[in-house]
Specification:
- InterPro entries: Asp/Orn_carbamoyltranf_P-bd (IPR006132), Asp/Orn_carbamoylTrfase (IPR006130), Asp/Orn_carbamoylTrfase_sf (IPR036901), Asp_carbamoyltransf_Asp/Orn-bd (IPR006131), Orn/put_carbamltrans (IPR002292).
- It catalyses: carbamoyl phosphate + L-ornithine = L-citrulline + phosphate + H(+).
- Residues 7-151 form the Aspartate/ornithine carbamoyltransferase carbamoyl-P binding domain.
- The protein has 335 residues and is an alpha/beta fold.
- It has two domains: 12-137 and 316-329, 3-Layer(aba) Sandwich (Rossmann fold); 141-313, Aspartate/ornithine carbamoyltransferase (Rossmann fold, 3-Layer(aba) Sandwich).
- 41% of the residues lie in helices and 13% in strands.
- It has helices at residues 17-35, 62-73, 94-102, 115-124, 139-152, 154-162, 185-197, 213-220, 234-238, 258-264, 272-278, 299-302, 309-329, and strands spanning 51-56, 77-82, 107-111, 129-131, 176-180, 200-204, 228-231, 243-246, 285-288.
- Helix 7 links the parallel strand 5 and strand 6.
- Helix 1 crosses helix 5 (139-152), helix 3 crosses helix 4 and helix 5 packs across helix 13 (309-329).
- Bound molecules: phosphoric acid mono(formamide)ester and norvaline.
- Residues 60-63, 133, 141, 289-291 line the site of phosphoric acid mono(formamide)ester.
Length: 335
Amino acid sequence: TSPFAPRHLLSIADLTPTELSTLVRTAASHKQSVKSGHVPPTITNALLGQTIALLFTKRSTRTRVSTEAAIALLQGHPMFLGSQDIQLGVNESLHDTSVVISSMVSALVARVDAHEDVVGLAKHSSVPVINALSDAFHPLQTIADFLTIHEAFPSASKSAASGSESGGGLGLEGLKIAWIGDANNVLFDLALGAAKLGVHLSVATPKGYEIPSAMRELITSTSPTAFLSETNTPEEAVKNADILVTDTWISMGQESSKAQRIKDFAGFQITKELAQRGGAKEGWRFMHCLPRKPEEVSDEVFYSPASLVFQEAENRLWAVLAVLEAFVVRKGKIV
Ligand code: CP
Ligand code: NVA
């Protein structure tokens, strides 16, 4: 690689624990500043006159809106390119597309189907490529999720600020996340983040929907200590959990297996009864990356005071703002 090779963000695996914590802290600090009416001088005009290409082959609400809004805060120009707009691997190779687009813009934010597509874009791009969701990873979601957890569990974060900075410095050690549902892209990056931040993660999937073994290896090799447990029984995962998390059972591209999946995931809906039966911690909270379908979580939980979902969605803005600042403005220098 040349000394000018750009640094990409394709998954949480690309970040050290300290870098992940720093991105979360920066996101929190930008959130506070901008909301109180002060755009920090370090980001004012940071992307003035620069274009960021948004290559999206799938639909998006949060990722698109947050990324365009963050680019606007940096005074840059977001150029949205949907699958009907450009020749992304359809009538032109990924290689050629990446070389051409990256010669004209400051970064590519790409939402693709197969993870290898975003890897391919990164390989040939002369500017940073940010993964905006692939079938394997969703790093922008994970950063927003840990910002949300950092906000919702301030006492956990405080004790670490005064104590050791092990686990990357967010002080979330000891927290337990229970993931109930499908082992998918959102889970995989969340798991990598949990490994880096010393958070325990308990995953319950139906039989046949477990974390694929290569992915499990990547996740568990990320932490020297055991932090991940897996089960096919939701109650078991929920035990002593601080946070219950799920995502849709039918990710984009899996629509044809919808009926089968809904059958196979019976009993995995997150409800108050499940939290009680399983013995979630007093004061447990609920998270979901959205968009949400009713089958994976009851309305009672989703719209309850325990639910962090809309704060989590808003935090996508502050997460991508920190990522763009780090990877595009600061050229990959995060810490
Ligand atoms: N959570 C998330 O990535 O949402 P969108 O698909 O709407 O971007
Ligand atoms: N797992 C979902 C996440 C959407 C943000 C999907 O891939 O469709």
